[in-house]
Amino acid sequence: MKLKTRLMVAFCIIIILPIALAGAAILGLYRIQTKAIQKNYGLEASDTQGVLSNSLQLMSRYTKTEYDEICKQAKADPEKLESVSYLTEVNTKLQEKSSYLIFCKNGILVYNGYHGDSSISDEQWEKQLPSYGEGDSSTGAAYYVDNDAQSLLKQVDFESSRGDQCSVYIITSSESIQPEIKKLMIDIGLSVLLILALTAGVMTIWIYRGTMVPIKKLQVATKNIKEGNLDFVLDVEGTDEFSELCRDFEEMRRRLKESTEEKMAAEKENRALISNIAHDLKTPITAVKGYSEGILDGVADTPEKQERYIRTIYNKANEMDRLLNELTLYSKIDTNRIPYNFKKINVSDYFNDCIEEIGLDLETRGIGLTYFNYADENIVIIADPEQLMRVVNNIVTNAIKYMDKQKGQINVRIKDVGDFIQVEIEDNGKGISARDLPYIFDRFYRGDASRKDKKHFGLGLSIAKELTEMHGGTLAVHDNPGGGSRFVVTLTLQQA
Ligand code: ADP
């Protein structure tokens, strides 16, 4: 899952799930607690909602039984209300409901059921409490503020048989009352907190697990690369952004490994190249040195000998010049520094001229040349005439070099093969051994025959191949069943 989707899902779950769970928890706790409240406060199920929303009503309900009883007594038997034992009995019941009872006769405190702060004197009580007849006659309930604490006060006034003005007060403290409501609130608060913490925790683990697995693998891979180890595979499945990042990283590692291997191979090749050049230059230079010393030391003591020595030095210098020329050309091709002059050339015209040029040289060497053009007269290719000539020359030069027959023969055929033309150059020389065949296009590779003759450097065919490829073509060698070798240059046709 994509990280974006994962975060969106987590966000929705963190919002929706706690709301749903908290709703369910609130409903459940509300049901349990309202049952307890109904039982404690003597409420009917239908009354509960209204009563709960009005704390004054709830507190009033709490002591309703005792209040009703006192009212009844005040009418039926006021004398009983003046009895301390009766007042203590009612007060004991009230204490269970966080309430207490006070009785005043003619404004004088006669009975005080309060068991709290005893520093309040009777006079203070008398001052704070409403006087006879001041109470709310409709409900009998009023708020009474004692310092900062709020209390509900219910007052029952009656006249005794002796004409005394008596008041019974039922005082209920708002601080100690409504324990169930408080508990309900605390329970709801706690359960909401718990649900929030649980949902957020589960979602955090879910996101963490989804992202940490690929990140950990990536960390290991980065460490490997830092230490120069590219031989590992970073294998991560999944469609999230981190997994994609891992796959890109793996691709980067693969390419880095390839390029490092290529670099190492190139370095190895360069070392071989330097060693080959040094080796190929050493032979003629040793000869030049030897013959020069011969002249200087007077070993060449006759004019004929001296001329032979000087000619050898000249030939060796020529050999080195050829090697350096070939090397320069090869390096130019390799580093793409050859100024190609590509143009449209007519195949028939071009090869007619080419064959004419080669033919003269072959004639002087006594080698036969046949030329067959099977392609259409108007066929055109795009090529650099000079470089294409170099390709043909290198192949023909080899055919001459490795010719071992009295009656040497070279056949050149131009064939039209669909979108390509093929130039076949076939000779009847010694041919190429199966052992040499896979390597003849490698630079500095020399076959057995060439190795004996120190004049060849093994660059001719590699130059020809590079040049053909620069033309978008291919150069291949084929077994010639009749002996000798057959090289095929394939070039792309230029459509009209
Ligand atoms: P070299 O300077 O040795 O000729 P090339 O790159 O031109 O280098 O050729 C590579 C090798 O391929 C030669 O050493 C030779 O063994 C073999 N070869 C190339 N052309 C021919 C051919 N026409 N007949 C026989 N062997 C050939």
Description:
This protein is of the alpha+beta class and 496 residues long. The protein has helices spanning 3-41, 45-52, 55-62, 64-76, 78-81, 84-95, 122-128, 179-226, 241-296, 303-334, 347-365, 385-401, 448-452, 460-470; strands at residues 99-105, 108-112, 141-146, 149-159, 165-173, 343-346, 368-373, 380-383, 409-417, 420-427, 474-479, 485-492. Strands 2-1-5-4-3 form a five-stranded antiparallel beta sheet, sandwiched between helices. It has a five-stranded mixed beta sheet with strand order 7-9-10-12-11. A hairpin with a 2-residue loop joins β3 and β4 (149-159). The longest helix is centred in the middle third of the chain and has 56 residues, at 241-296. The mean pLDDT is 86. It binds adenosine-5'-diphosphate. Adenosine-5'-diphosphate binds next to α12, α13 and α14.
Low-confidence stretches: none
| Helix-strand sequence | HHHHHHEEHEEEHHHEHEEHEEHHEE
Question: Which cofactor or ligand species appear?
Answer: adenosine-5'-diphosphate
| Strand composition percent | 15-25%
Largest sheet: 5 strands, antiparallel
Q: Compute the gyration radius: what is it?
A: 58 Å
Percent range of helical residues: 55-70%
Counting DSSP H or I runs of 4 or more residues, the number of helices is: 14
- Average per-residue pLDDT, rounded, comes to 86
Shape: rod-shaped
Report how far the terminal alpha carbons are from each other.
Answer: 55 Å
User: What is the count of β-strands?
Assistant: 12
Give the helix/strand class: alpha+beta
Biggest sheet: strand arrangement: 2-1-5-4-3
